From TrEMBL:
InterPro entries recorded: Aldolase_TIM, OxRdtase_FMN_N, Oye-like
Name of the protein: NADH:flavin oxidoreductase/NADH oxidase N-terminal domain-containing protein
Annotated ranges, domain NADH:flavin oxidoreductase/NADH oxidase N-terminal: 9-330
Protein family membership: Belongs to the NADH:flavin oxidoreductase/NADH oxidase family.
CC terms in the record's Gene Ontology section: cytosol
Amino acid sequence: MKKLWDQPKLGNIELSNRLVMAPMTRSRAELNGVPGSLAAKYYSQRASMGLIITEGAQPSAAGQGYLKTPGIYTNDHISGWRRVTDAVHEKGGKIFIQLMHVGRMAHPDNTPAHHQPVAPSAIAPNEKIFTATGMQSIPTPHALSEQEIQQTIADYRHGAAAVIEAGADGVEIHGANGYLIHQFLGQSSNVRQDNYGGSIQNRARLALEIARAVTDEIGPERVGFRVSPLNLLGGVNEGPEAKDLYHYLVTELNQLNLAYLHVMHVGHEDILADIRHAWQHSLIVNRAGRPIEELSDDLNNNLADLVSVGNFSLANPDLVTRLKKKVALNEPNPKTFYVDDGPLGYTDYPEWSKI
């Protein structure tokens, strides 16, 4: 794992290592979307990671889909996130806040205004979602008009500015895992017949327009973008054109000189190899189900510049120390991933030195 401990540059910031904390929804924000009282401790505990990418924060009220997810569009949100970023920076860490609009993966009961979910097309994902009254079917979403799409892009721009005002080092745009941007990329979720549907170029249009708006607002060196080719979460399927779609998208994003591209990789090696060839900047790869002993394989094989981990970093606030000392890791407890019960399963995982 020797390459993990290099000190790479990402955009204009120096990282302490090549290990990245992947974004993970924790559903622990206050009801107004302000990061919860323990969030600063949770993230600062993991400040030894080369980079922290936070859980997704909605850039607007319409972007929320799950209970108690944080926002990043009001002054209160900014103040809450400032406590988080200050705590991470005090320990020498670097932190990007992820902007996540869930699109159709939502339920009105989970949002303050009880709004109808939105999407590229009025197609429900045929899934259930947890609400305060239990599991409910996700309703058919409202298909965004082109005017509403422009407002969504403006929301991302505003959210990016808020991220920087909150003291973060940068923004990750969530274009993966079945959420709004990914829904526009998918043939199964996008059947529009206007400028945002049909061809590869049209289905990628929203992703690129959001990326351009965000980079114009805060500078490309502070922006990352996440994709998940053929990850079928939320019923999104890019179809047989997936490789060509991502080749086009990544080639266009490459011209924006972003700080990084973040790939949630679920097993399509030809697509990952093509992305590696088309992308000329820092590439983060997160392999689903990757054993800890294979953590640096993509670095060694020149398929990635950094590697991100989810559950390993969730359960091990001192993951860097544990890996360097080659000691056993804490096992994550899935039953507490989304349970808002104070420190339980959140800030109470022990450090190795305290066991």
